[in-house]
Amino acid sequence: MEKLKIVFDWFPNTIHAGILAAKKNGEYEKAGLDVDIEGQVHHAMDPSTTDMICGPEISMLMNMEHGVALTGIAQFTQKCDSGLVSLKSAGISRMKDLEGKRLTYWDLPWYHPAVGYLVEKDGGDYSKVKKVMMDVGDIVSTLGTTADATWVYENWEKYALLDAGKEVNYINFGDIDPIFNFCAPAIAATGNAIANKADALRTFLHVTDLSYRRMAADPEKILEVSDMIPEASSDNMLVAGAKHLAPIWIDENGKWGRIKPAMWNNMADFLVKKNVISKRREKEFTNEFFDD
């Protein structure tokens, strides 16, 4: 039995459903893999004790900039599910509307160049946005109290708010500029795993691909792993999020996980332009661990 460890970018949530289902149903084990799953590491991409790590492409590129041996090997969705959520009462229906409003942010070098670009593209002044540094864990208790808007994954925070009876506005960043239709979240393999566990990575992605295809075909299957997603507020929230993800989990060929070069390259080139990273690197990502 080949051992593989994957570390999620956050606690297990809707986006991870295909991996969780393959684990619970014994599909990895049947394929000869002993897959260990860990979570709770939002933005902390330490590859030293794992084979694969989940997170946004931006964080992967930042780690590569600092000499960490990582290569993107899969993306969870074929359209980036990332954007700005706010309560409808805050009146934020476009990026310019953030002027004078409280926006949470992470203390990371790419955050302000990214969001500032989107605000200014819409004719706004990012210096007029009130920044609140915090890593939001509970979006329901945060919006309307500590902050007015937060950068989130739509499939989780938006549906948590709706499940709590809130009326919300959501802006998908990729709809504003294709640069922001990037690989988030994605899966990266460590240099050690690529060198020493290539066959196991191929098997993992094959099994995971098939699991996500089944989940996309019947999003209510997510209820089979609801016990593995304890942070969900209800089954209704899980099903609503999975139904939202179903059409973007798979590509135009009905497959999961293949990295679209344009999605990766547009953001990587943007980060170079904004001096967030110094240069592009060879083998930032690959699809070579898929069957085709």
From TrEMBL:
Example GO BP: thiamine biosynthetic process
Domain (SsuA/THI5-like) ranges: 13-221
Gene3D superfamilies, per database record: Periplasmic binding protein-like II
Protein name: ABC transporter substrate-binding protein
